[in-house]
Amino acid sequence: MSQETLVSHGLPSYQAQRTCTPNVLVVGETGVGKSSVINLIAGEQLADVSSSASGCTMEATSYDLVLTDGQERGHHIRLFDTVGLNEPSLSKNDYLTAIEKANVLITQLLRTGGIRLLVFCIRGGRITSVTQNNYRLFRDILCQNQVPVAFVITGMENEQPMEGWWNRNAALFERSNLFCTSHVCVTATPGL
Fold it and tell me: Which residues contact 131 (CB under 8 A, 6 or more apart)?
């Protein structure tokens, strides 16, 4: 079917889909499982993952997905896997370059359809200063408090039920001024 045929049958053009597709940024520290969360959402291995101390995502990468709801309707979504800004191998200049790249990406997205959601990945455990700084950088500064935040708490392999971790720790997030619209506790390890 040609592009004209698709448009004439009421389906949006490719360009219209690209500008209307909700953009979702997946952010967090290096090693919290951002790429694994993307694979979990996609239901397949799209993003490279690594168990090493240094991260494997050095540039923001986008993934166009079609997610099916309970009524078998397809919904387009574009996920962006971002670099962890606490990358141990980043020099000061590389760190500033990574922030600048994040700023350019967010500015571009805000001009071309906006950002629907920040998925902020946090490894279950202590809330670190890096977590707090990344939250403020993305939510408060780069997205100017205009984008809702969903926390994805990773590393819940030994937590039963997983939601119990949030119930015990929600007040600590509030005391740390880390607020979200929604949250989920997960293990992104395949097979668990």
Answer: 28, 29, 122, 178
Q: Is 174 exposed, middle or buried (0-12, 13-18, 19+ CB in 10 A)?
A: exposed
**CB neighbour list of residue 19: distance below 8 Å, 6 or more residues apart:** 112, 113
* pLDDT surpassing 70 at residue 49: yes
pLDDT at 136 exceeding the cut of 60: yes
High-pLDDT (> 70) share of the chain, %: 81
**Are β-strands 61-68 and 117-123 bridged in parallel, bridged antiparallel, or unpaired?**
unpaired
Radius of gyration of the chain (CA): 18
**pLDDT higher than threshold 80 for residue 18:** no
Q: Taking a C-beta distance cutoff of 8 angstroms, is the pair 79, 62 a contact? A: yes
Distance CA(161)–CA(6), nearest Å, equals 46
Sequence-separated (6 or more) residues with CB below 8 Å from residue 145: 139
**pLDDT-derived band at 54, boundaries 50, 70, 90:** very low
Q: How many CA atoms lie within 13 A of 157 on its CB side?
A: 8
CA 117 – CA 135 distance, rounded (Å)? 13
Q: Hey, what are 84's tokens? A: 């962890």
Q: Which of 163, 169, 84 lies closest to 126, judged by CA?
A: 169
